[in-house]
Design goal:
Blueprint: H1 5-56, E1 74-78, E2 83-86, E3 90-93, E4 96-97, H2 110-119, E5 126-139, E6 142-154, E7 160-168, H3 170-222, H4 237-286, H5 293-317, E8 326-328, H6 329-338, E9 347-352, E10 356-358, H7 361-378, E11 383-390, E12 393-400, H8 434-444, E13 448-453, E14 456-462
Parallel strand pairs: 9-11
Antiparallel strand pairs: 1-2, 1-7, 3-4, 3-5, 5-6, 6-7, 8-10, 11-12, 12-14, 13-14
Helix pairs in contact: 1-3, 4-5, 5-8, 7-8
Length: 465
C-alpha cells in the first residue's frame, strides 16, 4: 500500500540513510584521498631530501645514488633548468625530455658565490622549504601520474641545484577506487536491508494500532459503548493512545448514559405537571365551576421554569461560553435580595466587598437565585449571603440555619434531578436542577461551587483583571 504508514516510514528511512551514507562515503573518500596524497608527498619529499643531502655533502652529480625510476623518478636541475642528474629509466617529466645528465658544474666566481649566499642557503646546505605538485613522468616508456616534491640544495662549490622527486599516485587511486567500488556495491544492499527492517519494525509496531482501529470500527457499527479497545502491555505511545481511546470511550459512554437519564428524568418531571394541568382543564370543561385556576396557573409556571432550566442545561452541555462583561457581585447580591424582601424566610446581606468578575450577568444572577431558593427552602428562620475576597478569587457564600447537607451527599446534590428529601411534596420542591445548573455555570465561568460546611454554599470565581 503506497499510502500506508509502513511504506512512508520505510521510504523515509531509506532516503535518510541513503543521504547519510552518501555524505559519509564522500567524506571518507575525500579524507582517504587526502591522506594517501599526503603520504605520497611525504615519500617524495624524503626521496628528494636524500638526494639533496648527497649534493650538499659534495657528492658529484654523476655519482649520486638515485632511487629506481619505477619507485621514485628523480630529476636534478640547475637554476637555468638544465638537467644535472636523472634517475634510471626516467625519460621525461611533465612531458619534458630529460635524456642526458650533466656530470659536473663549473666553479663559480667569488662575486657569484657572495651573491648566491645572500639569496639562498649557504654552500653545503639543503633548503628547508619544499614545493609539492602533481605531474606526470615517463619511466621506461610508461607515463603515469606522480606527486612531486622539489627541494633546493647547494653543493660544496656553491652551485645551486633543485632536486625533484616523485611518488606514484597509482596506489592511492587504486585504494580510493577500491573503497568507492565497495561503497557502490554495499550501499544498495544496505539500503535494501534498511528498507526491509523498517518495514518489518513498523509493521510490528503498528499492529496494535490496527487492532485499535478494527475494534473502534466494530464499536461504531454496534453502537455498544461498553466495549473497549485492546491495550498493549508496552508503555509506549501506542499504549497511551489505547488508554486515551478507552478513557474517551468511557467518557462518551458516561455522557450518553447521562443524556439518557436526563431525557428520562425530564420526561418524568414534565409528565406530572402536564397531567395535572390536563386533568384540571378536563374538569373545567365538564364542570366549569370546579376549575382550579390558581392551580392551573401554578402548573403552567412550573412547566415554564422547567422548560427554561432544560434549555439552559442544553446550552451549557453544547459548550456555550458566557457572554463577555464584568459583574459586580455585591451589586448583584443587593438586587437579588431586594426582590425577596417579603419572602417567608428573610435574606440578610453580610459583609460584602465590591468585587468584579468576568462573565454573564444573567447566568450569575441565575446561580445566586438558585442558591437563595435552595437556602430558603431548607432554612429554619434566616439566610445570610456575603461576598469576600480570597487572594485572586471572589467568594460568594450563602448560609442558612437549616439542617444542612450530610457530608456523604455534598457532591450528589449537584447531580441533575437529585433531591435529598424524598418525602417532600413535588410541588413544594424543585425538579432537582437548580444546583446542577449553578455548578455548570460556575465551571463555565472558570470557578467552582461546593458545600464547605453543612449549610454553607461557596461560589468561587476569579476576580476580573
Amino acid at each position: 500500500m503506497p499510502g500506508s504508514v509502513r511504506a512512508r516510514a520505510a521510504a523515509g528511512a531509506t532516503v535518510v540513510v541513503a543521504l547519510a551514507l552518501i555524505a559519509a562515503g564522500t567524506a571518507v573518500l575525500l579524507v582517504l584521498r587526502g591522506n594517501l596524497q599526503g603520504q605520497a608527498g611525504l615519500q617524495a619529499e624524503v626521496a628528494a631530501r636524500e638526494v639533496a643531502a648527497q649534493i650538499a655533502t659534495g657528492t658529484p652529480y654523476d655519482r649520486l645514488h638515485l632511487p629506481d625510476g619505477d619507485e621514485h623518478p628523480v630529476v636534478v636541475t640547475d637554476e637555468d633548468g638544465r638537467v644535472l642528474a636523472v634517475g634510471d629509466e626516467v625519460r621525461a617529466v611533465d612531458g619534458r625530455s630529460v635524456d642526458g645528465a650533466r656530470t659536473g658544474a663549473g666553479q663559480p666566481s667569488d662575486d657569484d658565490a657572495d651573491e648566491d649566499d645572500a639569496r639562498g642557503p649557504r654552500p653545503g646546505e639543503v633548503d628547508d622549504d619544499v614545493h609539492q605538485s602533481d605531474g606526470t613522468a615517463d619511466v621506461d616508456g610508461t607515463v603515469a601520474d606522480y606527486r612531486f616534491a622539489a627541494v633546493g640544495a647547494e653543493d660544496g662549490r656553491g652551485e645551486k641545484a633543485t632536486v625533484r622527486a616523485g611518488s606514484a599516485l597509482a596506489p592511492e587511486r587504486a585504494a580510493v577506487g577500491s573503497v568507492r567500488d565497495a561503497m557502490l556495491i554495499g550501499l544498495p544492499l544496505l539500503l535494501v536491508v534498511v528498507a526491509g527492517v523498517t518495514w518489518l519494525v513498523t509493521r510490528r509496531a503498528l499492529r496494535p494500532v490496527e487492532g485499535i482501529r478494527s475494534e473502534m470500527a466494530a464499536i461504531t457499527a454496534s453502537t455498544d459503548l461498553s466495549r473497549r479497545v485492546p491495550e498493549p502491555a508496552a508503555r509506549d505511545e501506542i499504549a497511551r493512545l489505547a488508554r486515551t481511546t478507552n478513557e474517551t470511550l468511557a467518557a462518551l459512554e458516561a455522557s450518553v448514559e447521562r443524556q439518557r437519564r436526563f431525557v428520562a428524568d425530564a420526561s418524568h418531571e414534565l409528565r406530572s405537571p402536564i397531567a395535572s394541568l390536563r386533568t384540571q382543564l378536563e374538569v373545567g370543561v365538564a364542570h366549569p365551576e370546579l376549575l382550579d385556576v390558581p392551580g392551573a396557573v401554578a402548573d403552567t409556571v412550573r412547566l415554564q421554569r422547567l422548560a427554561a432550566d432544560l434549555l439552559l442545561l442544553a446550552r451549557l452541555d453544547a459548550g456555550e461560553r458566557p457572554a463577555g462583561g464584568r459583574v459586580d457581585l455585591a451589586a448583584l447580591v443587593r438586587e437579588e435580595t431586594a426582590q425577596r424582601a417579603g419572602d417567608r424566610v428573610p435574606v440578610r446581606v453580610g459583609p460584602s466587598e465590591g468585587l468584579e468578575v468576568a462573565g454573564s450577568r444573567s447566568q450569575l444572577g441565575r446561580v445566586l437565585g438558585n442558591l437563595l431558593d435552595n437556602a430558603q427552602r431548607h432554612a429554619a428562620s434566616s439566610v445570610e449571603v456575603a461576598v469576600v475576597r480570597d487572594g485572586a478569587w471572589a467568594v460568594l457564600r450563602v448560609e442558612d440555619d437549616g439542617p444542612g447537607v450530610p457530608e456523604a451527599e455534598r457532591e450528589r446534590i449537584f447531580e441533575r434531578f437529585v433531591r435529598l428529601d424524598d418525602a417532600r411534596a413535588r410541588d413544594d420542591g424543585g425538579a432537582g436542577l437548580g444546583l446542577a445548573i449553578a455548578r455548570d455555570v460556575a465551571v463555565r465561568h472558570g470557578g467552582s461551587l461546593a458545600v464547605r460546611e453543612r449549610a454553607v454554599f461557596e461560589l468561587r470565581l476569579p476576580v476580573a483583571g
